[in-house]
Amino acid sequence: xxxxxxxxxxxxxxxxxxxxxxxxxxxxxAHTRWPxxxxxxxxxxxxxxxxxxxxxxxxxxxxxxxxxEALLNDLPHFITEIEGQRIHFVHVRSRxxxxxxxxxxxxxxxxxxxxxxxxxxxxxDYHLVIPSIPGYxxxxxxxxxxxxxxxIAHAWAELMRRLGYPRYGAQGGDFGAGISTALGAxxxxxxxxxxxxxxxxxxxxxxxxxxxxxxxxxxxxxxHLMANRPPYQALQALTxxxxxxxxxxxxxxxxxxxxxxxxxxxxxxxGSAMSxxxxxxxxxx
Length: 285
Known about the structure:
This protein has helices at 19-30, 49-61, 65-72, 116-122, 149-162, 175-186, 213-227, 231-238, 240-249, 260-263, and strands at 2-3, 10-14, 77-82, 85-92, 100-105, 126-131, 168-172, 191-196. It is an alpha/beta fold. Strands 1-2-3-4-6-5-7-8 form an eight-stranded mixed beta sheet, with helices on one face.
């Protein structure tokens, strides 16, 4: 990754993964040590061996990182430092002279790639700022704890100040929804509106609410989910350092350790096998 320094502590940034890292990735994929599997287990015990081998083979022999890298570099990337943390972001200016700004925040775990399909249509009317959450993609690695939604929201407010946007909207989904909501709360004089596509709420029994049968059904579904948390949630929420060793050392461990492992089935296509990670590992900064 390369950058040249610019004004206001903001530097243009270009994705340029060292070839040595790509060679190391290919070597690790080619020498993956595969575990045994119970016959006809399917998804009963976790990620199926045959499916993981299929994905690893696609990553090793079909996926072209340099092609994807070139496509990503068509976007205007920048980096800055806020509270000692490197922050990467995409900044797309609209051609409209009266355009408002929007800051778009991805989810957990995710990346700025979530917004690739909406950049063109949104930038017709808005200036777009699409940062990577600290610890994700090129906004990392983090070196201290405490980067919760509120602290990230303060960083986003500072980023928008540096970019010269006194008034702007905020959008986010998943963890990005919490950050966007917090941004609206801490900078109401600057945020003209917040749009989220993830809005979890929990009823307060003490408020005397009369819940419908449908409400109760939805609550039961949430209770079941929380009592049977997906493995990736438990591992990454409770012992992230422990699972980090496997994820960093073995690229083949990335799929079983991701949320896609609990959502994907054997009929899913390859899609973008790299959509939520760097070409080396999710912890690469």
